[in-house]
Amino acid sequence: MTERSPAPGGLALVEALVNTLDIESGADALDTPEGRVRLGITADGTDRARTLRESLRATLLAHAGHPPHREVTPLGALLAEAPLVVTVDAADGSAALTPADDRSLYARVAAAVAEALVAGTWTRLKACEAADCHWAYYDRSPAGRGRWCSMQVCGARAKMRRYRAKET
User: Fold this and answer.
1) 39-70 pLDDT, tens per residue?
2) Using an 8 Å Cβ cutoff, are 129 and 147 in contact?
3) Are 136 and 15 within 8 A, CB to CB?
4) Fewest CB atoms within 10 A around its CB: which of 59, 139, 142, 144?
């Protein structure tokens, strides 16, 4: 839905997971083997991935100042199940939190969130305010006040609705 560039670093994984569902059409990439392979999950992990996706969506809506789209398991509770380890690069001494199990989507998302917290970018990942969209996007606006995944689609629709409401 968006013409924006992907989110930086590990947030690209979070953005990709949230954007597996097109709310407007109902198409869910997690229903397809290709969509699951892109995220490194199996058919058995689909329900857990959907639970994580919707918890992330609620969190990204909060980043944009909006209430959750529905009741979800809190993201913190889900990520508490995701073991991370501290790794230290022998060459330069840099340290990072990394997934204890690279196959675990939960652990990879937890590592991405930790990386984004350190980088100060976590709250810039938001969900579009349009109720029929809620697509994840990385807000690169200087003030961090972006509202829509796409100004040409969701933003234009919202502005047209406001304009029409003023006419009546």
Assistant:
1) 999 999 999 999 999 999 999 999 999 989 98
2) yes
3) yes
4) 142
Residue 105, number of CB atoms within 10 A of its CB: 21
Q: Is residue 53 exposed (0-12), middle (13-18) or buried (19+ Cβ within 10 Å)?
A: buried
**pTM score:** 0.87
For the chain, the distance separating the N- and C-terminal CA atoms, rounded to the nearest angstrom, is 30
Q: Are 58 and 45 spatial neighbours (Cβ–Cβ below 8 Å)?
A: no
Residue holding tokens 């807000």? 139
CA distances in angstroms from 45 to 11, 17, 91, 132, 167, listed in the order given: 20, 13, 36, 26, 49
Give whole-number Cα distances, 81 to 24, 107, 108, 134, in Å.
Answer: 31, 8, 11, 26
